Structures are given as structure tokens and as C-alpha cells.
Amino acid sequence: MVERRQPILVSEAVSRVMNYAKLGEKERVSLTEAAGRYLAEDLIAAHDVPAFDRSPYDGFALRSVDTQGARFDHPITLEVVGAIGAGFVHKDTVEAMQAVRVMTGAALPSGCDCVVKFELTEESVDNGKDLITIKKPFETGENVSFQGEDTKKGTILAKKGTYINPGISALLATFGYSEVKVAKKPLIGVIATGSELLEVDQPLEDGKIRNSNAYMIMAQIERAGGEVIYFGQFSDDFDTCFNAVKEGLAQVDFLITTGGVSVGDFDYLPAIYEKLGATVLFNKVAMRPGSVTTVASFNDQLLFGLSGNPSACYVGFELFTRPVIQTFLYNGTPHLKHIKALLGEDFEKANPFTRFIRGQLDYDVEGRCIVTPSGFNKSNAVTSLAETNVLIVIPAKTKNNERGSVVDALLVEEVQGSEWPWDKVVLSYR
Amino acid sequence: MVERRQPILVSEAVSRVMNYAKLGEKERVSLTEAAGRYLAEDLIAAHDVPAFDRSPYDGFALRSVDTQGARFDHPITLEVVGAIGAGFVHKDTVEAMQAVRVMTGAALPSGCDCVVKFELTEESVDNGKDLITIKKPFETGENVSFQGEDTKKGTILAKKGTYINPGISALLATFGYSEVKVAKKPLIGVIATGSELLEVDQPLEDGKIRNSNAYMIMAQIERAGGEVIYFGQFSDDFDTCFNAVKEGLAQVDFLITTGGVSVGDFDYLPAIYEKLGATVLFNKVAMRPGSVTTVASFNDQLLFGLSGNPSACYVGFELFTRPVIQTFLYNGTPHLKHIKALLGEDFEKANPFTRFIRGQLDYDVEGRCIVTPSGFNKSNAVTSLAETNVLIVIPAKTKNNERGSVVDALLVEEVQGSEWPWDKVVLSYR
Fold first, then answer.
1. H/E element holding A271?
2. Which residue ranges does UniProt annotate as crossing the membrane (chains A, B) (predicted)?
3. Which residues of A touch B222 (CB under 8 A)?
4. A337-428 has which CATH code?
5. CB contact A108 to B (< 8 Å)
């Protein structure tokens, strides 16, 4: 009467999904639009940085050889033959016993090999000539930022798939990218199913709840770097849902449905996959929450059948949909960022399946990461999702996980992510 | 000849700036536009969650009292008088020896006080009547999600100033916020100064560099939750820069300039503040990089005079401008997120001033945070900014900071931030 499904390991489920992950297209955007996107090509230094020898201070550029005899009781005097600010070049080659006043960032004048800071000189004027007096010797190269000292031309500064943070924006500007090739965002369709769902602006009715999953998933898609197209919410009616899925698929790269994947009387997604001719990759995963998460492939598209239960929906997205989106964006580390952390409180429940517990990451005074379950932890607890910034992994077949024990944790806010598998040991557990 | 400035402590500088921080206005946006913004009002549960007693499983709702005599060798039989899916309500009160077939999420029918999962029942039909047989007793409340079990009406679920992550989006939907009051983004003007600056699309010239600071700062502003208006880049010319600053101020909440704040021959910002009649809060901070960072107030506006040096510019923004932006967004923890971490490598330089070193945060297998300086660490090293996700704080007057010692670190990517002061001890150091 009730369909019996065979659960597969989380690691196996992720592998099956990732077999269908694909790289997306590239598009050009302006540098100001590039922030928060992902590089579609390696960022290579187009020239040395600095591109020329320059002064890192305000001072006088000169020839170190001229200072070799200088001492406190035997000062030497040089003539100041020019003055340049950053952005300017001194035209003539500087000769013996000459100096050029230079501001921070100015190109080192030809002939000079060191810079002396203002405070180590005394300035004077004699007979209309500007002079400086120096009381100690300087070495060649002293106070010079040499060409290529920071970065050599040709260095790969960031690989494709790198999230464009403010530092990357600065690099792109440095090397002249007024336009940048970024990964095109995958278009992800969202369909919510469930006769219990009210629209957000509808008043509460007995037996019904407002549709929170669709808005949560849309925000998760955007956080993961995708673009959303929302097709709306539908009652549990086979034909309505089938048509919504079929029409939705035609417009998107990947399609997410929420609800309808369990084995209840009104869970129509399994039948919809069948009528569509989609291949079900799995429909039961050895995890909590989200054990009924279903993923199917149809041509080169993936259909993510997430649970109607908010926590299960959340976890299913982060484990299975996020890496597909991030792969589309060329990120070679597309999975949730994996860390080890100390469990912040006892977790005593037995685990037939691996648990992904919503939690909060804190840091203690000794530099350790502490992860603590977010309060009430029934899988329908939408409120605990608000404070979640980490999923705590409690392996299957364990119990009495004690406060202070080292556990695996997955950071949901971290943009660059981790490679797969996070940790074979943990995710192979049953 | 060279102006002597008196450095103040970082903590003092932050305090002076924060005296001028102000709360911004509120605006209504649609729920889908709210993701990534900050709540302008506390989010309060408008009703209990769940709003009614409901079934967390597929099964049969019934009266526990009817099952009290049930045993394996003494099954009891109930009549199934209805079936409801999620979103529906069973109209009649369930009487003795009756049951209702319920799907996950369905409202518990009146009269029932527990739910029995399908797999613990046997179904049959007798004389046109649907029956179930049960072989064990159940308790009142068993398998029921009670009204208010997750959240009670009136609970504050998130305070104003909270970043709207996917979990908050779900909560907003749950409580019917099709529109959300969010903090209006402060409008931050950016002016780059420096005769050495080329536009991003200009070819390199001897002695010149492309303007990377403006694009970096614009990305930092957006990351911090502000909105950017870019006024362009200007050569080191007093009148040009003065007019740009004066006209810019009239259009923004806060104004950032890059360059021109040092004591070089072409550093005009000090004179500009004077002509404008702005009050300089400080022009020298006991920190590296960024010691010449200058902040001035003009009416109720702040002018952030950041260094033209990329690393100094970056750090100056994160320490002084970010908390002003985040306060405008109602965030009560507006400063960079502060953690303790282990230093990943020896840092042997002496520190006359507190250093904020660009670095990377990693995690070790024992749950500890490891922070490592990002390669080459001269203050002009724009390339190291690309991989920076943390600023490592090395206190003044220390040297030989050893690998493995516990240091303070500030997370630049973390949206919710920390209170001030991060840690009085560290930031009071000289």
C-alpha cells in the first residue's frame, strides 16, 4: 500500500546529481556590474605590478653611490634638479650629486637607485639653487618599489570560478578590464505545490499555511549565484502540476519543485516524472531532514523535487542544487564550505540516518569554531532557519554526541565553497 | 616643512567616527526584493506556528483512549470516516472508535488527540466500511504537532538590523509580509583623486597606474550594504577637487575620497576640508596600513578621506566606513565580525603601530581557525587583496608573533558583524 523506497547514501546521491552538472555560458558585463559574480576565465596579470620602479614614500630620489661618504659629521650636499608627483616622469637622467624631489607613487627618475625620506634630509637654497644635505649613506634599492615586485606579468591571480570580491574588482581595474567575462547565471525555475498553501498576502485559514518555501528557495538560489523565475504555487492536482512542470522546464536551466515528493495520497511528483519520461536519479536519501528529496533528469536538465517541509527543502537545496548552480558558474569548489568544529551542546538523539542540523557558528577565545543547534529542531521548525549559518553533520548510527566533540559542519553563507567529497569518512557513514 | 601629525589609537578613531553615525530611513520593498537587505523593524510572530494542531506524518488521526486495550494478540478495529490532505479540514467531530486518514500537514480533526502512522495499521474493507486495525496503544499527543509548538504568537524572531537571509525570507512569508520594511541603503559618493590615475580602459603610460581604488571601494560599499554614486577621478588640482567634493556632498549621505590625505606636495584634501569648513575628527591613526586615514564631519555628513594606497584604502573603509553604513541599516553589531584565531605563520616584523594584515581564514581538523597573511605584504600589494577574507590584528609594540599564537582577526565577508569594541585589550594597545 505504501511504496517502499530504498534509501541511498548522501555521498551517492550527490554523485548521481553531479554527473549531470554542467558548465554554463559566459557573458560580458561592465566592471561595476561584475562585483558578486563569478569569473568565467582565469584572471592573469597583463603587466608587472608595479609596472615601473617607483617611490613608496615622499622624499628625494638620488644615486646611492653619491652618499657613500656621508656621515653625521661629514654631510654631503646634492642639488635638487626637479620635483615630480605621482603620475609624472622626470625627463632627464639624474647625474652625479643631483636629486629629484618625488612624491609617493612617482616613477623613480632615470639614473637614481634609491629614495631618501624627507625627514632624513635638510633642505636649503643657495644662490638660487635648491639643495639637500644628507648625513648617512644609503644602499642601492633602498626605498624603491621595483617593477614586478608585487606581481610578475603572466601570473594567474585568480582562477575562473572565483567569486568577484572587492579585491578581485581592484585587480580587474588594475589590469584594464572595463568589461569582464563572467559566468552567466543559471536560470532556475521554482514551482510550489500543495493544497495547504496560501499566497503570502492571503489571511490565514484553518488547516492552511502560507507558502514560505518558495520565497526561501528563491533567496537560496540568489545566494548560490542563480537567477530565479517563479512560476507560482499550485494545488495538489495532477494535471495542473504536470502542465506547470512541463511548461516550466521549457524555460529554464534547472527546475525546482517543493512538495509532492513523498508517498502520501496527494504526492504527485513521482507520477509527473513518469509521465514526463524523466529519469529518477533517486527518491530516498539516508538523511534527516529531506529523506524524500527526489532528483530526476530530463534531457540535459535536472528536476529537483524538494520536500514541502521547510527544513528538508532548505537542506535538499543546499546539498544537491547549490553545487549544480556553482558548477554552472565554473566554481571548482561548488559544494558547501566544509569545516571541522566543536559541538556546542550534547546531541543525544539516535540517528538511523545522517542528520544535517541547522545551527549557528560561533568562535571561542582560543580560536575554535563552536557549532550549536538552533533551538527547537523538529524538521518543520521554520523559525530556526532564520539564524542558521551552518549545517551540523551528525553521522548515522551514532548517539550521545557530546558537547565538545569534533563534528563536521557546512557553512551556508560562504561563497567559494569546498571540493567534493567534504570528507569521505563522514558522508559514507550509514 | 613636513606637517607633524599626532596619531590617535584605532579605538579612539572609531569612537570619534561613531559619534556621527546615524540611523537611516525605512522603505517598503516587496518580499522578493527584501533578500540581502536589512530589517528596519523587529520581525514578530503574527500568529502561533503551527497555527493549528496538525499531523507531522501520513497516517490516521484518532482518539488515543480508544487504543488503550490494543495489543498484538488483541487488536482493535476503528472505522475510517474520512480522509484529508494538507490544507483541508475534516468537518465533523470524530467519535469513539472512528479514525480519519490524514496526510502530512493536515489539521488534526476535532475529537482526535493522536496520529498513528500508516505502517502501524492494517487496512481492510468490511461491508462497504473502511476499517483499520491497531495492535498497540497510543498516548494522547503522540505524533501531533501542536499549535504554537514551534513559535508562540508575539515572539520576536529577528531584531531590526538583521540581514535578510533565506531563513528570514521564509519567516516573512510565513507571517504574511508580502511587503517588508527594510532599511534604506545609504548613498555613498566616491571620488578618486591622483594625477597618476588612468581610467580603466586607458592603456598604461609610464609613471601612471589604473584607478583600482574606486572600483574596489564601490564593491566594498555594496558588500557593506550601501549604494554607490561614483563621481569619477580627478587630477591633483585643488580647485577641481574642491568643487568635486563640494558638489558631491550635496548629493549623498556620506562621501569617500581616495588619495590626497597625506602630507605630500599634492595632497590637497586637508586644505579642502579647511576651505569647506569641515571638522577634521582625525588625520593620523596609530595603525598600518592606513595611518593617514582622515575623517571629517560637515553638517551631519561624514567625509572619509581614505589613502590612495590600495591596502590602506581597503582597511580604512572596513574599520571606519563600514560601521557607519551598517548603523544606517539599523544593525546593532555594525563592526567587522571579530574572532580569535591561530596565527598560521611567524610574523616577525616589529610594530610601532597596530597592524591590520590582509589574510586568509582556514579551518583545521580540530575545529580551529587559522589565519595566514596573504603572501607579499607591502601596503601597495593589490594582488593580496584578492584572496583576503580576514584582517589579522597584530598589536603595536609586539614582535616575533609566533605561528600558533592566538590573535584577533576580523572577518570582512561576514554580514552581521560584531559589537564595538571588539576587544578592548587589543585595540587599546599602542
1. helix A269-276
2. none
3. 35-36
4. 2.40.340.10
5. no
